[in-house]
Amino acid sequence: MKQWQINVTRFFHLSLEMLLLFLIIIPLYFIENQSPPIFPFVVTVLTAIIFYDPFVRKYKNEKIGLILVPIITLVGISLGYNIGFAFILAAIVFGRVLFHNKDHDPNEIGLFIVTFIVGVIYFLGFFFMEGREIFLYITFGHFFLTLTLTVIKLSFQSSKALGDKYTIIKWQLGKVLAIGILTSLGILLYPIIYKVVYTIFQGSILLFGLLGIPFVYLASLINLEVRPQNPDDGTGMLGAATGDYDLTEPATYNLDFLIWIAGAIFVLIILFLMLRKNGSIMLRSEVAISDDYELSPAKKKITDPHSWFKRTAPKNEIRRLLYDLEKFLAKQGEGRMPNETVEDWFSKINVSTDLKEVVSTTYRKVRYGDKEVTKQERDEYRRVIKEIKKQLKNQ
């Protein structure tokens, strides 16, 4: 990809991370019955990104944050944040800008999975409060933006064949259409869905209450101090006793915590069903080196539930370093075409011939498995790949 294309995808992904951050801090205002400060948050984050980026792009060093973070903290304070929250927000944004400028390849699908989990937990946790729909709005909005970023990254990749691009783009647009239809149905049927979920919660609370009756009765038999609801001080039935209480008085049970338990169980069931599902899926839009020297989209049979979160890079260090170099060159517009050998691919790259020869020779040893690669050769191979990246960046 060209430099401006890299900048666009980085800023897009960074914006999705900031949307997740905003979702995380919303409950702080829900607890205080306040509206989330959208404008101060957006201004602080945009100011931080615009201010950080030129310095981080030049130095790519954590030490520069010691100077820049306090400045953005002052911006946050001027917009109404307290000093602690403003400092944390400035530090988080600096860390993410630094991360994206160190040639990392973040996974937007993994970011959405985190957003989905947080959004569902918050929605269930604040189910009986007004304004809870904002968690669903942000989660669905994040999903559509994630698909948009995936399509943009795919269209920018020069190493993808045109037919493969069109195929994957059509699949992504189909997902957007399907989710859009389901979302519209969910909005139209929201009153019914609300009543169903509310009934389930009520039934769960009643069930837990009935299951707890034997334990309350057992406590009365062993003379544990169980007191009724006191309207004067608002203490619950398990509060500390300050006098004599009659266990025959009706006790009021405070079972609000069961809402959280029911919500957590529901989310765990959904995640278990998601991770338990097996099948062939198309991995994120990256390229992989196949055994027949072709470049093709990588497909993988999911057998381990945790494999969604694993990298698709080869385990062998020599292959993995070439794999990373291939992704880096694809972003620079020097991607490897289908059915193109390493030698033909390197012949088009404008770097030192000696460096290209070291990479080709070392990789052939691993590719055909006829020789061992010593530790000195691995170190030299690693150094040469870093030098190739450095030369291409300086062009």
Automatic annotation (TrEMBL):
The keyword Membrane applies. The chain crosses the membrane at residues 12-31, 37-55, 67-97, 109-128, 135-156, 176-193, 205-224, 257-275. This is DUF4129 domain-containing protein. Keywords: Membrane, Transmembrane, Transmembrane helix.
